[in-house]
Structure formats: C-alpha cells, structure tokens
Amino acid sequence: MTNTSSRKRRRTSTLPQDSEPSKHDIFTQWCLDRGVQIQNVKPAILPGRGVGLITTAKIKQDDRIMFVPEKPMFKPDATVFGKTQTKTWTQKASPQVQLAMSIMQECRKPESQYHKWKATWPTPEELLPTLPLFWSKTLQSHLPPSLQQPLERQRLDYEKDLSTARSFANEAGVELDEEDFKYHWSIVNSRSFHFKPPGARPGFMVLCPFVDYMNHGPSGTGVKVSQTPKGYEVDADRDYEPGTEILATYGAHPNDKLLIHYGFTLPTPLNPDDDIRLDSLLLPAMSSSTTSALQDVGFLGGYALLPATNELCFKTQVAVRAMLLTANEWEYFIANGEDLSGDQSGRVREWVLGRLEEFRELAVEKIEELEGLEGEDKDAVKVLVGRWRQILEAIDRYEREGR
Ligand SMILES: C[S@@+](CC[C@H](N)C(=O)[O-])C[C@H]1O[C@@H](n2cnc3c(N)ncnc32)[C@H](O)[C@@H]1O
C-alpha cells in the first residue's frame, strides 16, 4: 500500500456549529423522523477514533439513552441483484456478504434515503488503510505472530465473499465494482449488528442507525445494549456528566482482536481484556507426544500472558507443566489446579522467562524495522509499533514481578 499520509482525514475537533446543518445533524434528524429515540447524546469528532457519541446533559444510571426500532434498520435484500436469485441467496451468501451487497447496491441509487446515513461513515480513503487485511504484504508481515493465522482466515473469508458477490452480479448481468464492494464489506465488518426479525435465520445481520456511532470500550466501561423483539435499546450503565463519550463493549476483545478486526488497539493498562499470545513460543518447543496429550485434554493452543494481572493463563500453566512434569504429576495438576509434589510455578516461570527473551528480541527488531520503513501508511505503522511496545512492556513487567 502506498503512503496515504496526504489522504483526507476527518478533523479532530467538535462538529461545525454553523447555521448550515452538518451531515451529522441531517442524519440525526433522519433518525428522529423514523422513530429512533435519542436522549442527551450527540455525535462528535474525537481524536484518534473518528466520530463517537458524547453526552449533552447529565445522564443517570439506567436512563434510556437510545432506542432504535426495527423499521429504520437496514436489512439485507434477497432481490438486490434480481428476483431470480432469492432461492440461492441464503444458501450461497454469508450474512455479511448479504448485507454488504445489499447496502452497496442500495447506495448506487441516486434517490436512496440511505445517502444521509452513509455520509456519516468514514470514507474509503479513511477506512480501508486502517484495516490490516488491506495493508501491504510488508506491513502484514510485521503483525505479531499471533495474528498471522487470523489474518489468513480473514483473507480467505473476504476472498470467498468477494467471489460470491461476483457470481451474484455475473448471473444478474451486472458489473461488480470490486473497490466499492471492498468498502461496503468493511463498513459491514465494523458497524453491523445481529438482529433477528421473525422468520430470519440465526446470524442475520443489520445496520443499525445512530447506535453505530458508538465506539468500543473494554469490559465494564460500556453502556447497556439490549436486543429486544422491537429493536435495540441502549441504557446508561452509570451516571454521566455532560461532554463525556459513551462507549459500547463490542466484546471482551484483546488488542490483537481489535487490531485485526477494526485496526485499532486500546492502551494496555486500560484494557483488562488484553492478552499477549504465547503460542509462537510454546508450540514449537513441544514434542509430538506433548502436543497430542494437550490436544486430548483440549489444552492445545491459546496460551497467553495476561497484562492485567501479570500472570500466565491456566492453559499456559498446563502446557508448560506438560513439558516439565511426569504424566502423573501433570494429570494431577489438570484435575486439581495445584501441583502434586510442591508448587511448580517457579519452574514454569523460569521456563517461560527463557522463551520470552526470544520474543523480546523479536519485538525490538520489529519496532526498529517499522520505524525505518519508507512509503507505508504512517498511521498503520504507528498502530503496529504501539502493539509491539505493549508486548515489550508486558514482557518487562512479567520479568520483574510476574507469576
Ligand atoms: C461502529 S463504528 C464507531 C463509529 C466510528 N468511530 C466512526 O467514525 O464512524 C466502529 C469503528 O470505530 C472505530 N473505533 C471504535 N472504537 C474505537 C476506539 N476505542 N478507539 C479507536 N477507534 C475506535 C474503529 O475504526 C471501528 O471500526
């Protein structure tokens, strides 16, 4: 990917207060006209996170902040490429590709009412360079080892969805604009919601107006979002002062997941959901008999250092013991969560410390390489350097006082 530092960025200030309504004012009115209830929040441009929602007055815990009825949600349309394809639609197209193809085709109509909504989304120039899936091979190769497999899976999913979209368009004799598809697929990837209208299949996805302005916060920091048969309700999780951003928790996501899926990370001390994956250190050190023993008990892979508590996860405790202890001692630990013959956590820590040295060297090397890279997207490089620094800090802290 070429350097896009000159691409248009959204200004990091409050929204224009001119007499002319902004695109966000126009969309807010569009929502209100369609029965969306909005209480004491408005969109605002927030540094480093695009647009989000901030409070305009005090809000009390449990107050209703928003309600979005089903009607203004955007749903997939099985006839988007012609009526003949409705039969194969649910068999061949994933919920994500259904929604992406539908919104893309809808927005091709000059008279579509959804242009007012689309105007509030990040543009392709703003969105696509943030997503690792569309980074250059060089940048992708600088993702942590834990993200190489998820990246490959995402690539395969995208290729499959693109090929489905191509075949629906071909059958209908319509030309697929692949760049446009890529953009709408990415919009759906970052701002769709599950909603199941009566009769729909599980996994049904929709775009949900106004609540899609909410940015992500880690576990314990998000408003209460509930799906009811009538629509989406959003209630305050705590009291809010005016001018505070309200966040939604997209899931208890570690930074790896946030990075690969959305292209951002949270500061580690503020993200209790974060973990530093250690599979690339543990798996190559295992004999094939250890690997199959771990597989048999469901403990193969998914090893992590947890920065929030500075501890190794239980799976790591089990896996390292599988390499250090006798079968008897190891089975006792799995069954009881403690060691048969004296606490072995010191030995586990020593073993892990030895391996972490390699990981530290890799992190230092990657940061140096990234900082010397020319011609790559500067924001993407910054996000990657940030993630490697978090890894480095977690290793340092574990070396000093981890358990
Ligand atoms: C549902 S949208 C939220 C609205 C979005 N910020 C916008 O400008 O339209 C999700 C996207 O917002 C951004 N985002 C969400 N939470 C964030 C956070 N905590 N920090 C940085 N970016 C965030 C990511 O680009 C993500 O893909």
From TrEMBL:
InterPro entries listed in its UniProt record: SET_dom (IPR001214), SET_dom_sf (IPR046341), SETD3_SETD6_MTase (IPR050600)
Residue intervals of the SET domain: 39-251
Biased composition, class Basic residues, residue ranges: 1-12
Domain of life: Eukaryota
SUPFAM superfamilies named among the record's database cross-references: SET domain (SSF82199)
Annotated region described as Disordered, given as residue ranges: 1-22
Full protein name: SET domain-containing protein
